[in-house]
Amino acid sequence: MFYDIKLTLKYKYKPAALGGRHILRLMPADIEAEQRLVAGLLEVSPRADERVDRVDFFGTQTTYTTCGGPNPALSFTLTARVNRLASIPSFDMSPPLSALGDEIRHYKGIDARAPHHFLGVSPLVPKSQAVADYARGIVSSQMTSQEAVSRITMALNNDMKFDPDATEVDTPMDEAFENRHGVCQDFSHIMICCLRSLGIPAGYVSGFLRTVPPPGKPRLEGADAMHAWVQAWCGFEAGWVEFDPTNATLVGQDHIVIGRGRDYSDVAPIKGIFRAAGSQETSQAVDVIPLL
Amino acid sequence: MPNRLNKPGQAQYADPLAGYAPPAGVADELMDASGNVRPVWQNFIKFLTALPAGDIERRIARGDQYLRDAGVFFRQYGQTGSVDRAWPLSSIPVLIAESEWNGITTALVQRAELLEAVMADLYGPNTLVASGQLPPALIANSSEWLRPLVGVKPASGHFLQFIAFEIGRGPNGQWWVLGDRTQAPSGSGFALENRVATARMFTDFYSKANVHRLAGFFRAFRDELQGMRQDGSSGVAVLTPGPLNDTYYEHAYIARYLGFMLLEGEDLTVQDGKVQVRTVGGLRPVSVLWRRLDSAFADPLELNEESSLGTPGLLNALRSGTVSLVNALGSGVLEMRALLAFLPRICRSLRGEPLAMPNVATWWCGQEKERNYVIANAKRMLISPALSTKLPFDVDAQSALGGTFRGEATGSVEDWIKTNAQTLVGQEAVTLSTTPAYIDGRMQPRPVSIRVFLARTASGWQVMPGGYARIGKTQDATAIAMQQGGSVADVWVVSEHPVETVTMLPASSAPYVRPDSGALPSRAADNLFWLGRYIERAEGYMRLLRAYHIRLEESGTPDTPLLKYLETYLKPYKIDLDEGVPETLLHCLSSAVRSASKVRDRFSIDGWMALNDLTKSARRMAEMLVPGDDSARAMGVLLRKITGFSGLVHENMYRFLGWRFLIIGRSIERAAAMAMALASMADKDAPENALDLVVDVADSSMSHRRRYSVSTSRDTVIDLLALDVMNPRSVLYQLTEIRDHVHFLSENSAYGPMSPLSKATLALHTDLAIKTPEALDTKALLDLAKRIEQLSNLFTESYLK
Known about the structure:
- The complex is a heterodimer.
- Chain A is of the alpha+beta class.
- Chain A has seven helices and 13 strands.
- Chain B is built from 26 helices and 21 strands.
- In chain B, strands 3, 4, 5, 17, 18, 19, 20 and 21 form an eight-stranded mixed sheet that branches. In chain B, strands 6, 7, 8, 9, 10 and 11 form a six-stranded mixed sheet that branches. In chain B, strands 12-16-13-14-15 form a five-stranded antiparallel sheet, with helices on one face.
- In chain B, helix 15 packs antiparallel against helix 17, helix 20 packs antiparallel against helix 26 and helix 24 packs antiparallel against helix 25.
- The relative contact order of chain B is 0.09.
- Chains A and B meet through strand 3 and strand 12 of A and helix 6 of B.
């Protein structure tokens, strides 16, 4: 499936900002047999003083930019064409949950895809007894690893309320879980915490989601959003499988990957510092247009 | 001389070794197993034995006095914050024979090379993990293994340049490595101070005792750091987390000792992939940073986002190879306790030889066989977090020692190990040797561990011939840390032959070149500027308060028109006259101390002490003063103390660039305050005697009498306090000072045409200089004060951003 993706992040400052330094993770990934980046362009306006493009530890395309000031506004625009190839796996080839630990131990290496990065705590996914207790109530050790992941996906989707106004980007995971609400970031972090507590290596995937308009309605321009979901390592045979707890589904051709990490902090779309004294106004517009 | 009055053998001579008995089952540094003093100690003990009674105490007092005068302290953290404590130096050094030391040196150099190889692998090909020599889970879970640094090769080709090893001697006499300090080891500067103090105590003995000197080690390392620079025009700096860090004193000390700039993360900025220091003369390149800051805090953009101590973009500069960090970022991963379990094997596989000095035996519970062994032998082990980077004797609550939990945990240790296997290590409980400490008038054996420092130099790794010894407070080896009441001691490596005496000065016979006085970082300038302002502001408050209380004492009531008027005048400054020492004044003094504490490396110790003494006195007084005469006198005392400090600044402070910033700060504050005071006290509606009051506050009563020989009038007062270029209390005098300093600074900067600051200063000075007293009405005075404050803003913008 081919997509044209357009994303614009805009910042307005009053008074003008004196300068800034950012790290962007917005470019869709280019992975053989999974997703091809046909073309991609990330523009910074006003023109960046310095710009360094590189691939980070987990394989995500990152762009470092600096800009001097004073600037009343700053914008980042991504234009990309992507061919998404991944399809939903038809067989469950994962070992029983009780045997997964052995497989993990046999994985010798700490390359970016190694399960070892994804079992411990990470900056935004701390240990949580409450989440662990919740997860233990849903799965049993006889289940296959993949089935356990699937059950957690469904349970969270059922028990959590999607509410874009309930949490902020820095709401702690514990708090979102306690109130059982949040957005894709909260769903994903809680699910990662559940899986890790069960001994299943789990990470965070940042990307885009194609939204299908209601029947008979036109697609709204700019109304798509960036999205996040979860990857779990289910043994050597099954490898990494991806589930979307916000939408209770396996990840397929509607999901376009930007990057993967331990949690949001590894793949945040934009990180940075702007030297600004006054107020700041932010806007975001995303279009994911399937090419039929 | 007292020892002429006594003859050897008389009762006045105390035997320092009387009753000295090392506990059974441990080695002792001083005595061998049969109770004989070891050869390396014999001369020293002979020397001590010949001292008359009470002499050791006098010597210790001399050393402690030095440490107090030098301002050495350490910060003890309690449940309610931290307190600064006197430096706990144990007077008796630890003596080690050169022949034994050479063995230690060889072993530790081997270990340094091994760690360099492990580091290069962990941030490079990771073959140790891939080949099963290191468990992947340990590395992946370590918060010190920094993924953004994987694949980044250091510009110098080496990851480690300055490291330390904590070593201790076991019961069989063999030395063990207790822990590796590779992040940013502290203690080498303190070791120098310990040496100076100890050498002062035993100066007559030390000079002839063939003790290896330390300066050569530091000189070689300084040269190494200078040699790592990308080019001659870029600088070397010590990067500190700042004054809140518990070893900040050492950072300032070592920067001063080696002649490097002391910088904080916010002093630096990265431009075009290069690290630059913000100085008052613009950006200056830096290409070597000896960091005393933990890796994770170095760059908030790519590492710990919460860090306010770092420099955004630093990692980008590292990747482009324009800066060297010493040690490379991420080196903390080598300090992980669990690594000790694998290093012996890794040494064999990488170097084809066993470790020359074993490290404390360690088993990672994530492996089945090892776990079972730890469970079976828990009684003689310390079981603790595997990823912890603390030293083995730094036992925290999440540990079990000798089979029981140290903290409040309950339940069985075995279950605890099984549940948390991956995160735990078992380590052979440490038994340290004892060394003599002088306690309660006699020598007593106390457990000791020694931190040994290694630096990479042009000729390879060099080991500092000495060290930083830590001495337990009691016989308990786990209570050796200073935070738990332990003390520290000097380490003497004693040769059988005379040793070379070295200093930091170069040995060459090249003609003397006066060194550049160095760039002034904007942050340091800013702190000096504000120190000047705060001190002057405090003095101004004191003068106003004294004037108020003297008049209150005379009138017996605060309800006279003048006192009411003064009270209203002070209101905007939030000065409450019922408080003996108003909170505002105390706050002002604390701000001055805070500013000064951030430029400790540029400040004389006397100045620092005077400032602290002033602040302490003010706080003490605040609790007991009553309004009137009592308060007036107290302000008098504080004024004498504050002028003592100002005198030091004036008489003794080197006229480097920073001094000008301090003076400009003071002048701006004084000029603005005087303009404000005149606007109020010389107003046509001011009560009777207000003019006398302002002359009194300006310490100018005498001058007024001599200059005008009439009673005060508005014209004479304005003339004397606003327009007189000879009166240091007048506005014009201070504006002249500011003008001259700004002129000097702009001549030394890159500005071509006259800067906005120079223009504004000159214009303001001229406008005031041509005024007559009549023309300076209240409105004009208020306008003057406002323009002086604007000058301050312009100044900040030009130099301090």
